[in-house]
Amino acid sequence: MNKKIMYIITILSTAVLLFLDQIAKYLAVLHLKGQAAIPIIKNVFELQYLENQGAAFGIMQGKKTFFVIGTLIFLVIVVILYHNIPLTKRFTPIRIVAVLIVAGAIGNMIDRVVHQYVIDFFYFKLINFPIFNVADIYVVVACILFILLMLFYYKEEELGQIFPFMKNKKAEE
What is the structure's pLDDT at 167? Predict the structure, then answer.
């Protein structure tokens, strides 16, 4: 696959994921805002509307500017690293991870810019887990996949192709 086609697929995939996230949030506002929680599995999982002005677990409430600037810097870094990913099938999983992370980051950044808060609506009541959204799922799944890929799939030399700071200094000598 040539680089141009790969970038088009990446942009389209990111756009589809963003669309799904934003539609889910729109539906949450439409059907959940101002309403009682809707149990999906009684005392386990429910849909509950929340306007989160902070980050995960509600930390750093009201720090919108910090989150937007931080997200933009993070996105630039991911795009630069993405450019280093070799165009082989072996590196498809890490490209998928990058798409998920970018879609999740942009999805929540859109909320912060447009609404001044992130719309959350999934709640695991059984374990009192913080309320989250589709973009959060993208980021968590991407992080889990990234860790698994780093631990069990890619070799150190391969990682050095993507992450210049991970290049083996002894191998270069």
Answer: 62
Q: Is the pLDDT of residue 156 over 60?
A: yes
With H, G, I as helix, E, B as strand and everything else as coil, classify residue 121: strand
- The torsion angles phi and psi of 87, rounded to 5 degrees, stand at -90, 60
Average pLDDT over residues 157-173: 66
Task: Indicate the angle between helix axes 92-115 and 134-148, nearest 10 degrees.
Answer: 150
Among 64, 75, 68, 82, residue whose Cα is nearest residue 3: 82
Tell me, yes or no, if 111 is annotated catalytic. no
Residues 6+ apart with CB under 8 A from 160: 166, 167, 168
Report the C-alpha gap between 61 and 55 in whole angstroms: 7
pLDDT in tens, 90-108: 999 999 999 999 999 999 9
| 84 contacts 64 by C-beta, under 8 angstroms | no
Count Cα neighbours of 19 within 13 Å in the Cβ-side half-sphere: 6
Rounded distance, CA 53 to CA 64, Å? 7
Out of 25, 105, 136, 142, the active site residue is: 136
Catalytic residue among 120, 123, 133, 139: 120
Whether 21 sits among the annotated catalytic residues: the reply is no
